[in-house]
Design brief:
- With 694 residues, this protein is an alpha/beta fold.
- Helices cover 30% and strands 18% of the residues.
- It contains 24 helices and 30 strands.
- The strands form 8 sheets. A 7-stranded mixed sheet has the order 5-4-18-17-16-6-7, covered by helices on one side. It has a 6-stranded mixed sheet with strand order 24-26-25-30-23-27.
- Helix 3 packs across helix 21.
- The longest helix is centred in the N-terminal third of the chain and has 19 residues.
- It is globular and about 70 Å long.
- The chain starts with a strand and ends with a strand.
- The relative contact order is 0.16.
Amino acid sequence: MTVTETHCPYCALQCGIALTPEIPRVRLEPTEFPVNRGGLCAKGWTAAELLDHRDRLLTPLVRKDPTDRGSPLREATWDEAYERIVGGIERCQREYGRDSVGAFGGGGLTNEKAYTLGKFVRVALRSASIDYNGRFCMSSAATAANRTLGVDRGLPFPLEDVAQARTVLLVGANPADAMPPSMQYLDAGRAEGARHIVVDPRRTATAAGAYRHLQPLPGTDLALANGLLHIALREGLVDEEYIRDRTTGFDGVRAAVASYWPERVERMTGVSEAHLRETVRLLATERPSMILTARGAEQHSNGTDTAQAYLNLALALGLVGRPHSGYGTITGQGNGQGGREHGQKADQLPGYRRLDDPAARAHVAAVWGVDPDELPQPGRSAYEMLDRLGTDGGVRALLVLASNMAVSAPHAGHVIDRLRALDLLVVSDIFLSETAALADVVLPTAQFAEEEGTMTNLEGRVIRRRRALPPPPDVRTDLQFLAGLADRLGRGRFFSDDPRTVFDELRRASAGGIADYAGITYERIEAERGVFWPCPAEDHPGTPRLFADSFPTADGRAKFVRVEHRDPHEMPDRDYPYVLTTGRTMQQYQSGNQTRRVSALTLSLPEPRVELHPDLARRLDIADSDMVELSSRRGRAVFRARLNPGIRPDTVFAPFHWGGDQAVNLLTDPALDRHSKMPAFKACAVAITKGTPR
């Protein structure tokens, strides 16, 4: 039997696994890959169950009546599916212009597929209309890192460095549930005496194991960071030499945090002055130290500025670029890092180049063999595009790959209405997701074990996804789908469906860019168990650790940026008196389109539960396991209650992995961060009603 080493299809750890085709199922085991070191979570252990799942899409589906999306889906040939797609694309572009046809991608696509999707929209469709679900994940942290450090690589050091840090400040992160194998590094640090401080409105599994748990009101993380820097300045804990030699702009930040005195920050956040002072002193004196942020801090209408505030703190303490130290942000989706580097974003070209940069356009156009003037200018960001679907000036025909926005987008009820308003909706997926169920054409795609390609994990380590078995007979990879569609649109000469050919072209397109993959080959990845970018040449060793000597900015220095606290876009009031925040569970992943079909995971957590503090539940006459309805200004959702003394009494929490009337994103606020266009998933005002009123 052939054993194929590849990687888990879920989160950004990209844990190493080995697949052995057996009858009746594929056997899956963890490997001693440098990230997971033989560990796997429940999702990883059960990933092979999806390969022959009874719900698997095995043939294209089209509407029985092509003029009525309410008619049932029926099986079709690929030729018929292509005919409907091409007809819809050509009709929309003829009537509404090129930008009326677009694509929405995903952070789970391989680098090759993400690259090809961005190229397809700009070269085959010649449209500006593309973005992806990573805009809902990493965009705020990426924006802050780019403007301060000159580069966005979630962790600018290997995960193993976390085990060496004496102090770790985790802000809005719950890796114990979101990526359990990573906890071995935190556990190893604690075993050697490290102190970990977790900032979260809930006492999560991560917080429960930490030295200190700080519980701020959702939406006040920026005030907390500015307050910590204020104390560092007052107590002489900042690294003035580092600031002088390696940064610019600190005077503005020094002035800004002057008003964030501890007593004021305690009132704003609910975190005691004593704990604020202790946190700063540990970061400054118990070194090496690092600050790690995640979506709890970043998915806000001021998420970029919040990430910026923690970057400011890390720079002021002289942490960035020193061994086992620094600032990082924890990427969530499987290829959330690579997916945002190579052209899925509305304003981006491969290699993290800007689409509005003439030099970048010229370089990439030369690789693609087109005139730079043919390339469109930047389009609309993810929610801005979804908000205008089916309207004048908006996208009228949409291709969706590896995304389920009917569940994952904010104000999901509105997004579903917009999807229904499209002239043409095409969805490529493994299963009939909530989004695919709305489509005119549904295409079956290959799964992780059935394709070749590369992924880039949360450390910036480029790894190989290897094919262990062929896909079912009528299932194609997304590369095959896109190349075939380009051919039918008369642009096939620009595209290949061979992953290695695509990756070699990606290497050339990224060469000289921020995310430079030019020196990374399939052979090197295999021999070295992953290669860290930037890697500009085949004789370059790759870059596991960034910023040791300089920053990739114009002057080689990191840039402080002054930021101020702003209240969340939506504050509690008499009608909606509580704050809702959202997040992950250990058993489920993203929109749940895959994990909700795995029996072991569903038995462990069959339904979402809303967490309430017992004091709040008592006031509302709610008992554990009662049904409750949450309502916001945008919609209603129904959950079973779970009483949790570890959550703030003014805050409720619900996971986002379910659809239908259990979709928490029916409630969430689509207000966008002005810099990154990240929606405010993590704080909105809700009312709570016992029972399930209608």
